[in-house]
Design goal:
Elements: E1 7-20, E2 26-41, E3 46-50, H1 57-64, E4 72-77, E5 80-81, H2 87-93, E6 97-100, H3 114-124, H4 130-143, H5 160-172, E7 178-182, H6 190-207, E8 210-215, H7 218-224, E9 227-232, E10 235-241, H8 242-247, H9 252-259, E11 310-313, E12 316-318
Helix pairs in contact: 3-4, 3-5, 4-5, 5-6
Length: 327
């Protein structure tokens, strides 16, 4: 009997209003940062959310956690509609839903010590007394590979990789089930990236964590995700199992992204694929298929018809008018 996904997102949208006028401001348009997303994440799995900068990946993660209120759509976590929860109920639910931020330099309070940073979620949610919290902080430092002697140091005394380990420890403090990983390794050196990724995979295995892993580096996502969703201009254009997407991408945008990933030993006649043209503004997206202005396969109908995300083969969906579902 199939189980329900831990996270179910339907029709999720966020349109930021564009206001004009100082004395009597009025809305003259909207930035369609997220424009109707549908996806599920099974418990214990990782969904990789990839795409170019500005496509709406980070906004999606924050909408799920209600750090930003959506314009439309539903977000169900463990069968509960998060958008219907009152503020206090949502605050309690956030114990099971945490975030690891992109910038390990800017996401930590420089005035707080390591122990205070990791202890903060426990204090906010009134978990345990001081002795229990001190013991929990020591456990978390050990779990993420930081020495307990570091507990009274400040963020500026740590390297980038160590700071991200602090961020991971803080996210784990309340024993969450689900973590939004917002480009957690993009600001780190390549050698440190591998260490943090391996740590996150080990933690997922040990604690049964579920991840939404946001990234623009498809090479990183290939190592961490069970399924991958490709996002363009606020919409998901393709979603599939990792192997299916990397071996047989169906959407022209996915194909271009994967063709541009550097490989260790390219052949002499191999050329680097590039997408032509600029990304359209999310405040004035093109009609029809948003990608048609840059798509080498675009036809006349692509300029007027909006493609829906539909199944091309079992477990593999894409939003392209030129694709025919396999029988």
């Amino acid at each position: 009997m199939p189980t329900e996904p831990l996270l179910r997102v339907r029709g999720l949208a966020k349109h930021f209003p564009i206001m004009h006028g100082a004395l009597l401001p009025r809305q003259v348009g909207a930035v369609r940062a997220v424009d109707g997303l549908d996806f599920d994440i099974e418990e214990g799995q990782t969904l990789g959310l990839v795409g170019e900068s500005g496509c709406g990946k980070t906004t999606t993660g924050r909408l799920i956690l209600r750090m930003i209120e959506p314009s439309a759509g539903t977000v169900e976590f463990a069968g509960e509609d998060l958008l219907s929860l009152a503020p206090e109920a949502m605050r309690q639910r956030r114990q099971q839903m945490q975030i690891i931020l992109q910038d390990p330099y800017g996401s930590l309070d420089p005035r707080m010590t390591l122990s205070e940073i990791v202890d903060e979620p426990l204090r906010i949610h009134r978990v345990g007394d001081r002795a229990a919290r001190r013991k929990r902080v020591a456990e978390l430092l050990d779990v993420v590979g930081l020495r307990k002697e570091y507990a009274h140091r400040y963020p500026h005394e740590f390297s980038g990789g160590q700071r991200q380990r602090i961020g991971i420890a803080r996210a784990l403090a309340l024993n969450p089930r689900f973590i939004v990983c917002d480009e957690p390794v993009s600001a780190l050196d390549v050698s440190i990236q591998a260490q943090i990724i391996n740590l996150m995979l080990d933690l997922q295995q040990e604690f049964g964590l579920t991840y939404l892993f946001i990234a623009h580096d498809l090479g990183v996502v290939k190592h961490v995700a069970d399924r991958v969703a490709v996002m363009y201009l606020g919409r998901i254009v393709e979603i599939a199992d990792r192997q299916a997407l990397y071996e047989s991408p169906q959407h022209p945008y996915s194909q271009a992204l994967l063709a541009a990933v550097p490989i260790p030993r390219p052949s002499a006649n191999q050329t680097l694929a590039t997408l032509k043209g600029e990304i359209p503004s999310p405040s004035h997206p093109p009609p029809g298929c948003h990608f048609h202005t840059r798509c080498p396969q675009a036809q006349a109908r692509c300029r007027v018809e909006t493609p829906s995300l539909r199944q091309i083969r079992p477990g593999h969906a894409a939003a392209c008018l030129l694709l025919t579902p396999e029988v």
